[in-house]
Specification:
Oligomer: single chain
Number of helices: 4
Distance between the termini: 40 Å
Largest sheet: none
Radius of gyration: 19 Å
């Protein structure tokens, strides 16, 4: 009985991140690093754009991006 409860707690505690989330986050990190590289080299036109894109758009997008449930995909194809 206790093992069933501990398994359900473990399933609830997991974050629902998929490869899609990690890919968006990796792109955000790449853009942030590029933004700082451009900032160090003195280019103040593209670096703020890359930094804002990485920090304010892509990182939150990587946290909130969700895959469609399997049931919704099956209903759309029918």
């Amino acid at each position: 009985m206790a093992s069933k409860r501990s398994n359900s707690i473990e399933n609830e505690a997991r974050l629902p991140f998929t490869g899609k989330n990690y890919a968006i986050f990796a792109i955000a990190m790449l853009l942030i690093v590029l933004g700082f590289v451009f900032l160090v080299t003195g280019d103040i036109t593209i670096s703020p754009f890359l930094l804002v894109l990485g920090y304010c758009i892509l990182i939150p997008a990587s946290l909130f991006a969700m895959d469609k449930p399997a049931e919704a995909e099956n209903n759309e194809t029918n």
